[in-house]
Write a structure and sequence with these properties.
Helices cover 65% and strands 12% of the residues. With 640 residues, the protein is an alpha+beta fold. The strands form 2 sheets. Strands 3, 4, 5, 6, 7, 8, 9 and 10 form an 8-stranded mixed β-sheet that branches. A two-stranded antiparallel ribbon has the order 1-2. The chain is rod-shaped and about 170 Å long. Its main location: membrane.
């Protein structure tokens, strides 16, 4: 019965699993879910699907995302296909206008040479008529928009251009205008056409093609500047020098600007430099027109011999200059044509890819719609079938869960009889319950006087029945120990044979109430047990011997197979000594407990004297006699 003092974690390995297994089933949340499922018995498939809309959303959301992605990809492919088709059309249209610009540049140069010639030159005029016919052919091949193109803030159609050209040509034929006006007229037309090309061109969403388009535009601007230089150069050869300082300055300015355009074109398309190198190798005079230094050196050499040449010779030099410059400019038109061919090839490839992607994404979208419809229908059918089957077994599951909840309740009740509820709940969560130290505890020990003799004189079954009657089977009014202690703030530690151990202040501290609670319980138990008639021994009554002591102790769970909540310490030993050294029908208390009861003021005690307690030595002890004020429980018992 006496326990040795232990410390630390008393039961680190023990876990309570049987209580937690049923906890998730017996809670209110599970009951509500099962009740909801049972209600679906009478619901239709549509109603069941509506109730389980979250399950339907699980498949609808990814299907919708897939359809949206396919639709977006299809739209993107359609846009690329449309943009590449538009770009190809705009490139082809710009090539026709570029061809018109080229012929206007040639006509500009030859007409300038004809106007500046000191005498009427039939050879230059014949060349000019040929160029005019080529310009007319190119102009009629151009399809301008319905509103025409903007020239000097006026919209001009093809007919307007042709009419204006014919009037200007008449002025050139009679040489009623100067070369500056002639250059300005043709340059105004070419600039308007170049601006229209840059505005009407629709670049595709492809970096490589865009760079080629920039290179093509830079070459076209460069050839226009070179065309003006070609026209100014013819005046130089027919006049043995520059007609004015302004014309010379303009020529040099055009030389620098055309070189900048060429550098821009070569930066965006490295193949231009390779093609120019090839043309230089095939034409020795080409460098005279590319490099400014070589060109001005040519002009200087001509000035030295010009004074000794005749007019027909100067006109021949002028035509030769014009022809060489035309060859030079045509080389860049040829390079530009190869760039445009590469642009068209790239656009066609983009269009082919876009068409393939469009077909692919369209097919994917159609398949996705069909598969989505089938999957959605199958999924909703499965949901309806699942909820239907679930509702069939819901009743059975609910009944089993109710039964399991009842068994769990019984298990918990049994567990709470073995262990304090606070400790049991901690162990059910899988945690360990560490030993605790309590400073203020009162411990009660009792046994039956002469129980050994009664046991010898009785059958084993009679002893079991006696203990059951005494400790567990009747009400408090009929002297039940276990149910009697429920009326007080105490905890039954254990029962061994006729011995009974109760404590107050553990496992939940109750301040200074531990001694009064144990004292009240002891008085009540003594009142009910003393005079109890033994059922199988008529005429013989029981007497109980009680011992009480207060002080600190350590409490915790011991054991893994059969766990028990045990108390350890000198207080336990002293309380046991108080019981063993007491007398039948009396409550023997220590001086510590007497002091606590005296502070309470509602208990009557009697000094027993100084006795020699085994293991403790001389101790002053007391008898607990009665309450000063009647026990409320006794009052209730008498009224009943």
């Amino acid at each position: 019965m006496l326990k040795g003092v232990k410390s630390g974690k008393i039961s680190p390995e023990w876990r309570l699993d049987f209580g937690s297994k049923a906890s998730s089933v017996g809670n209110e949340s599970d009951r509500r879910i099962l009740s909801t499922v049972i209600e679906e018995n009478s619901a239709s498939i549509i109603k069941r699907l509506c109730k389980h809309w979250k399950m339907i959303v699980v498949i609808i959301v990814p299907i919708s995302a897939m359809l949206m992605l396919s639709s977006f990809s299809l739209s993107r492919a359609s846009e690329i296909r449309q943009s590449t088709s538009t770009a190809i059309e705009s490139i082809n249209h710009s090539l026709k206008i570029s061809d018109l610009v080229k012929h206007l540049q040639r006509e500009r140069g030859m007409s300038t040479s004809f106007i500046w010639a000191s005498n009427f030159s039939s050879s230059i005029l014949d060349q000019l008529h040929i160029l005019r016919q080529e310009t007319n052919t190119s102009l009629w091949n151009v399809n301008l928009p319905g509103v025409g193109i903007s020239i000097q803030n006026t919209q001009w159609s093809v007919d307007d251009l042709m009419f204006s050209l014919n009037r200007h040509r008449q002025d050139v034929d009679i040489r009623s205008i100067d070369i500056v006006y002639n250059l300005d007229y043709y340059t105004t037309l070419t600039n308007a056409l170049l601006k229209y090309i840059s505005q009407s061109l629709t670049p595709p969403d492809n970096a490589a093609v865009q760079m080629l388009i920039v290179a093509s535009g830079a070459l076209l601007s460069m050839t226009d500047d070179r065309g003006i230089q070609r026209a100014l150069g013819t005046t130089f050869f027919t006049s043995c020098g520059w007609p004015s300082k302004d014309i010379e300055t303009n020529y040099k300015s055009l030389q620098g600007r055309s070189s900048a355009f060429l550098d821009t074109a070569m930066y965006h398309d490295r193949k231009i430099e390779i093609q120019l190198t090839e043309h230089k190798q095939s034409s020795a005079n080409l460098s005279n027109f590319i490099n400014a230094h070589d060109t001005f050196q040519l002009f200087t050499e001509y000035e030295n011999i010009c004074s000794s040449t005749s007019l027909p010779e100067r006109e021949a030099y002028s035509i030769e200059w014009f022809s060489n410059m035309t060859v030079f400019i045509d080389i860049f038109f040829e390079i530009r044509e190869s760039i445009n061919t590469e642009i068209r090839s790239g656009l066609k490839e983009l269009k082919s890819i876009a068409q393939f992607e469009f077909t692919l994404f369209l097919s994917t979208l159609i398949v996705a719609i069909l598969v989505s419809g089938v999957l959605s229908t199958w999924y909703m059918y499965c949901i309806a079938t699942l909820t239907g089957n679930l509702s069939k077994y819901a009743g059975k599951v609910k009944r089993k869960s109710d039964e399991l909840a009842q068994e769990k309740k019984k298990t918990d009740n049994l567990l709470y009889q073995m262990l304090p509820k606070k400790i049991a709940n901690i162990l059910k969560t899988g945690k360990t319950s560490d030993a605790e130290h309590f400073n203020k505890v009162t411990i009660y020990f009792s046994d039956i006087v002469g129980f050994t003799t009664i046991g010898v004189q009785s059958q084993p079954l009679d002893i079991v029945n006696l203990l059951n009657d005494l400790y567990s089977t009747t009400t408090c009014l009929l002297s039940l120990f276990d149910e009697c202690i429920d009326k007080y703030d105490v905890y039954k530690v254990e029962t061994i044979g006729d011995a009974y151990m109760v404590a107050s202040g553990v496992p939940t501290p109750n301040g200074g109430n531990h001694a009064p609670e144990i004292a009240s319980m002891a008085l009540r138990i003594r009142q009910e047990v003393n005079g109890y008639i033994i059922p199988h021994m008529p005429g013989r009554t029981l007497q109980i011997r009680i011992g009480v002591h207060s002080g600190p102790c350590v409490a915790g769970v011991v054991g893994t197979k059969m766990p028990r909540y045990c108390l350890f310490g000198d207080t336990v030993n002293t309380a046991s000594r108080m019981e063993s050294s007491g007398m039948g029908g009396r409550i023997h208390i220590s001086c510590v407990t007497q002091a606590l009861l005296n502070d309470h003021g509602n208990f009557v005690t009697e000094f027993r004297g100084i006795i020699d307690v085994k293991g403790k030595g001389p101790m002053a002890t007391y008898w607990l006699e009665r309450l000063k004020i009647e026990d409320p429980i006794k009052v209730v018992s008498m009224s009943l």
